[in-house]
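Need residues for this backbone.
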């Protein structure tokens, strides 16, 4: 389904931990392309509501980083599939301090390089990689006692199709490029826009778990909204869903 546009709201209230007593655990899937505010929104919502948080994109970046470091031919899906199970990827789910390690090494910084960014689509498109990472994601979600906010591109459709609430964030290419170039200091907005559209095409057209909005997801267009407004919108949706459980 498609949600009504979020109306402007006051700055987010501090709710961390306050609403988790005697409340049902809730699993929230937040999907959407890059530059829509997924990560900032997901972390803030999880922190305010006392939920765990998982950045699934970081896991695909982590396995890509490992393959680059180990000289794997990323133009060869067979080579990628053959070693997909070798690295041990561990994700910390504290929204205030999300972490990710590969074989015990903190890779939170290295996985954000342009080299990894340019190669992650090729690695994440390999079915064997997606199968392994999807199982890891499901196990993390299942272990979250108070609930979890999971962000990615195929959470509501593939990873957690039975999530209590599915949200799909969108934004205009121009808004997304402006945000992403702001994150990547010195990046050219036009070049960033082209890179985002290229990534969209790759993610939407892959055969295994493509980027797509679940039929029962609430769509939120963040183009004209501030981050505070998006957070308040999603927090309200989560609380309504949790109160109904």
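Answer:
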């Amino acid at each position: 389904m498609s949600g009504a546009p979020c109306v402007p709201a006051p700055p987010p209230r501090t709710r961390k931990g306050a609403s988790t007593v005697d409340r049902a655990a809730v699993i929230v899937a937040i999907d959407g392309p890059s530059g829509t505010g997924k990560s900032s929104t997901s972390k803030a919502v999880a922190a305010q509501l006392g939920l765990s948080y998982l950045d699934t994109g970081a896991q695909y970046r982590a396995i890509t980083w490992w393959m680059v470091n180990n000289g794997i031919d990323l133009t060869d899906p067979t080579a990628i599939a053959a070693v997909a199970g070798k690295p041990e990827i561990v994700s910390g789910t504290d929204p205030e301090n999300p972490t990710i390690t590969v074989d015990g090494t903190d890779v939170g910084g290295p996985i954000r390089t342009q080299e990894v960014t340019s190669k992650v689509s090729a690695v994440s498109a390999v079915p064997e990689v997606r199968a392994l990472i999807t199982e890891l994601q499901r196990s993390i979600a299942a272990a979250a006692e108070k609930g979890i906010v999971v962000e990615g591109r195929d959470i509501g459709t593939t990873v957690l199709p039975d999530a209590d609430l599915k949200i799909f964030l969108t934004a205009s290419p121009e808004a997304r490029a402006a945000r992403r170039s702001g994150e990547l200091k010195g990046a050219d907005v036009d070049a960033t826009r082209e890179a985002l559209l290229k990534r969209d095409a790759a993610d939407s057209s892959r055969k295994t778990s493509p980027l797509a909005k679940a039929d029962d997801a609430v769509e939120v267009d963040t183009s004209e909204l501030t981050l505070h407004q998006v957070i308040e919108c999603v927090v309200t949706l989560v609380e309504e869903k949790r109160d109904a459980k």
